[in-house]
């Protein structure tokens, strides 16, 4: 079952329950209020008949004249009604066939199908001793008695048989009309709700259907699939998040392909060199001399260095590099690493200037071995990519709660386009540079992962000396 049908059924069921609940509640409320109104009207009619009977008793000083005249009793009942009309003909004719005191008359076949009976047919008159004046003996047990008084004494009882208080055709017609009216209103509202539910389900289901289609394209490897952002609600935010995810997957896929291609290329070159030299020795083109063995050893070392860099980068990407962090001052560690490069910088005639702007030592929570790896990679990068007779400035200072270390070297410089990709793996500023000097382009990528693992930041910019400036920020432990 599609989400659109589920939404439609959910909306329709909710509306149906609400409409039917309102229908039954409204009908119950109407019937209850109308019944109370009818009962009140019935009580008024009962009081009116009692008043008429009390007047009759006071005028004739007893029930003698009324007790022997059923026609008078029938006329009195209908005269006390709200409309003061004459009794129906069928009642008069039926009453004539009953004994004098039998009331109400037996129901004829024509009246058995009626949904209502007149209020007057439910009234029975009893004497003060509760003997029947007009009534039926078998109905006495069903009566609710109402006293008829004269001069503060009870002279009789007016009995009322149980029955539907809605005892007029107009009342029943009104209730039936209202019931039909409520039914058609409820049915119309359900149909209208079904139409609205379908429109809402279609409107809400359309973006979900688009999302499902685009997700299916993404699952098949089409990482360029995007969702249109047509709203600013949760659906629009979902589309934005999906597009960001698709863009990240596309970039990851491109990086993976470039990663595989670069690894293949980087491994193929030293292996090809090794193979060529070994074949030359085997073919007798080059003699197996100490110089040849030294060259082969150098190629093996470069290959080993490349595989080690790849391994370290893979570990740092997964966060699997072991970090044994302690509180330490990174400045002496940096000076020690710099001292190991003094001979190399002097050999290349690169002057190194040390600028310490710290007023007192600072502590950071760091792994000394990983920080030394970071510093050595950056110093090696400056050594390899700075022209002879150049210079290197190392500045150490504190900015707020950050320890800032900057390594700025002289020419050659780096373009803006290259700076944006310096920390990408296998990226080289000079693609034609000899790999014996330039390396595989993994050092700065490893540096970036190490700084990130220490909750710091690593940035590159143009140096005032004409070369590259590497900016390191590490959080200081209070």
TrEMBL record:
<dbReference type="GO" id="GO:0005886">
    <property type="term" value="C:plasma membrane"/>
</dbReference>
<keyword id="KW-1133">Transmembrane helix</keyword>
<dbReference type="InterPro" id="IPR050428">
    <property type="entry name" value="TCS_sensor_his_kinase"/>
</dbReference>
<dbReference type="InterPro" id="IPR005467">
    <property type="entry name" value="His_kinase_dom"/>
</dbReference>
<keyword id="KW-0902">Two-component regulatory system</keyword>
<keyword id="KW-0418">Kinase</keyword>
<dbReference type="GO" id="GO:0000155">
    <property type="term" value="F:phosphorelay sensor kinase activity"/>
</dbReference>
<dbReference type="Pfam" id="PF00672">
    <property type="entry name" value="HAMP"/>
</dbReference>
<dbReference type="InterPro" id="IPR003660">
    <property type="entry name" value="HAMP_dom"/>
</dbReference>
<protein>
    <recommendedName>
        <fullName>histidine kinase</fullName>
        <ecNumber>2.7.13.3</ecNumber>
    </recommendedName>
</protein>
<dbReference type="Pfam" id="PF00512">
    <property type="entry name" value="HisKA"/>
</dbReference>
<dbReference type="InterPro" id="IPR036890">
    <property type="entry name" value="HATPase_C_sf"/>
</dbReference>
<feature type="transmembrane region" description="Helical">
    <location>
        <begin position="181"/>
        <end position="201"/>
    </location>
</feature>
<feature type="domain" description="Histidine kinase">
    <location>
        <begin position="262"/>
        <end position="478"/>
    </location>
</feature>
<dbReference type="InterPro" id="IPR003594">
    <property type="entry name" value="HATPase_dom"/>
</dbReference>
<dbReference type="InterPro" id="IPR003661">
    <property type="entry name" value="HisK_dim/P_dom"/>
</dbReference>
<feature type="domain" description="HAMP">
    <location>
        <begin position="202"/>
        <end position="254"/>
    </location>
</feature>
<dbReference type="InterPro" id="IPR004358">
    <property type="entry name" value="Sig_transdc_His_kin-like_C"/>
</dbReference>
<keyword id="KW-0597">Phosphoprotein</keyword>
<dbReference type="Pfam" id="PF02518">
    <property type="entry name" value="HATPase_c"/>
</dbReference>
<dbReference type="InterPro" id="IPR036097">
    <property type="entry name" value="HisK_dim/P_sf"/>
</dbReference>
<keyword id="KW-0472">Membrane</keyword>
<keyword id="KW-0812">Transmembrane</keyword>
<keyword id="KW-0808">Transferase</keyword>
């Amino acid at each position: 079952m599609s989400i659109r049908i589920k939404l439609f059924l959910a909306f329709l069921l909710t509306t149906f329950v609400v409409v039917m609940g309102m229908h039954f509640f409204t009908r119950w409320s109407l019937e209850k209020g109308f019944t109370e109104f009818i009962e009140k009207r019935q009580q008024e009619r009962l009081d009116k008949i009692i008043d008429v009977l009390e007047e009759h008793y006071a005028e004739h000083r007893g029930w003698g004249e009324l007790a022997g005249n059923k026609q008078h009793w029938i006329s009195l009942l209908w005269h006390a009604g709200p409309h003061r009309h004459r009794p129906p003909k069928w009642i008069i004719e039926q009453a004539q066939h009953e004994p004098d005191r039998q009331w109400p008359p037996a129901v004829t076949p024509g009246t058995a199908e009626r949904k209502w009976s007149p209020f007057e047919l439910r009234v029975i008159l009893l004497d003060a001793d509760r003997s029947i004046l007009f009534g039926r003996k078998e109905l006495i047990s069903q009566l609710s008695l109402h006293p008829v008084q004269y001069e503060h004494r009870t002279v009789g009882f007016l009995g009322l048989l149980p029955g539907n208080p809605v005892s007029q055709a107009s009342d029943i017609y009104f209730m039936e009309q209202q019931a039909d009216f409520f039914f058609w209103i409820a049915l119309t509202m359900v149909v209208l709700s079904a139409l609205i539910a379908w429109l809402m389900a279609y409107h809400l289901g359309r973006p979900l259907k688009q999302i499902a289609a685009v997700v299916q394209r993404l699952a098949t490897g089409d990482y360029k699939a995007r969702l249109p952002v047509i709203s600013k609600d949760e659906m629009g935010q979902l589309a934005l998040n999906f597009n960001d995810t698709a863009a990240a997957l596309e970039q990851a896929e491109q990086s993976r392909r470039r990663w595989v291609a670069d690894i293949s290329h980087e491994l193929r070159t030293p292996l090809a060199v090794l193979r060529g030299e070994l074949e030359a020795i085997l073919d007798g083109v080059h003699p197996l001399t100490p110089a040849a063995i030294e060259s082969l050893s150098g190629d093996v070392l470069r290959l080993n260095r490349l595989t080690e860099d790849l391994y370290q980068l893979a570990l740092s990407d997964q966060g699997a590099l072991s970090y044994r962090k302690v509180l330490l001052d990174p400045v002496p560690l940096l000076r020690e690493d710099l001292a190991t490069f003094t001979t190399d910088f002097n050999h290349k005639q690169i002057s190194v200037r040390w600028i310490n702007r710290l007023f007192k030592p600072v502590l950071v929570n760091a792994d000394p071995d990983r920080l030394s790896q970071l510093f050595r990679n950056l110093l090696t990068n400056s050594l390899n990519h700075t022209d002879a007779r150049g210079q290197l400035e190392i500045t150490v200072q504190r900015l707020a709660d950050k320890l800032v270390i900057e390594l700025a070297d002289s020419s050659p410089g780096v373009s803006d386009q290259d700076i944006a990709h310096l920390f990408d793996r296998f990226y080289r500023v000079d693609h034609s540079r000899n790999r014996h000097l330039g390396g595989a382009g993994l050092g700065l990528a490893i540096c970036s992962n190490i700084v990130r693992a220490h909750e710091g930041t690593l940035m590159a910019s143009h140096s005032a000396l004409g070369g590259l400036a590497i900016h390191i920020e590490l959080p200081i432990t209070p």
